[in-house]
């Protein structure tokens, strides 16, 4: 079992920045990929970014490329999502997810991940 706890979400003005954190506990040595997803009201959960266990490989949705940066500190079992130049359309609940095995699904698919956090609300005002 892996437990994930997100933090850092808050209300921010458009153009501002936030850093989200995802702290993992439990059998974290099994985690080989960690992702961030988001879900706005009335919409499906969508991929934002992902990072490999070593941190050497990162993936981004086109909508956030150049504005968001995913990173990890394995000593702290924490993954970060640095968000800059935030837009009102970035408003959503942001979820952290951990994958412990390759199951054939694309890394941008929610089905790739085995564990999820409870989410943290990010609201960007215009």
In short:
The protein is an all-beta fold and 126 residues long. The protein has no helices and 11 strands.
Mean pLDDT score: 94
User: Hey, roughly how much beta strand do the residues contain?
Assistant: over 45%
Radius of gyration, in Å, reads 14 Å
Largest sheet: 7 strands, mixed
Assign a percent range to the helix content: under 10%
- Overall geometry comes to globular
Compressed to H and E, one letter per element, the order equals EEEEEEEEEEE
Helical stretch count? 0
Low-pLDDT runs: none
Q: SS-based structural class?
A: mainly beta
Distance N to C terminus: 40 Å
Say how many strands there are: 11
Descriptive notes:
This protein is 0% helix and 50% strand. It has 126 residues and is an all-beta fold. Strands 2, 4, 5, 6, 9, 10 and 11 form a 7-stranded mixed β-sheet that branches. A 4-stranded antiparallel β-sheet has the order 1-3-8-7, with no helix packed on it.
Key traits:
126 residues, single chain, seven-stranded mixed β-sheet, mainly beta
Task: Walk me through the topology.
Elements (H helix, E strand, L loop, with lengths): L1 E6 L3 E3 L4 E9 L6 E7 L6 E7 L5 E3 L7 E6 L4 E6 L8 E8 L15 E2 L3 E6 L1
């Amino acid at each position: 079992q892996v437990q994930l706890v997100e933090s850092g979400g808050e209300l921010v003005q458009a153009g501002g920045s936030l850093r989200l954190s995802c702290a993992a506990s439990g059998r974290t040595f099994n985690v080989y990929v960690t992702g961030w997803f988001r879900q706005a009201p009335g919409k499906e959960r969508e991929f934002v970014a992902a990072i490999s266990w070593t941190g050497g490989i990162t993936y981004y949705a086109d909508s956030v490329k150049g504005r968001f940066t995913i990173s990890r500190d394995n000593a702290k079992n924490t993954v970060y999502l640095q968000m800059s130049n935030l837009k009102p359309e970035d408003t959503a609940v942001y979820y952290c997810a951990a994958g412990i095995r390759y199951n054939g699904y694309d890394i941008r698919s929610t089905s790739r991940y085995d564990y999820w956090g409870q989410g943290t609300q990010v609201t960007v005002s215009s």
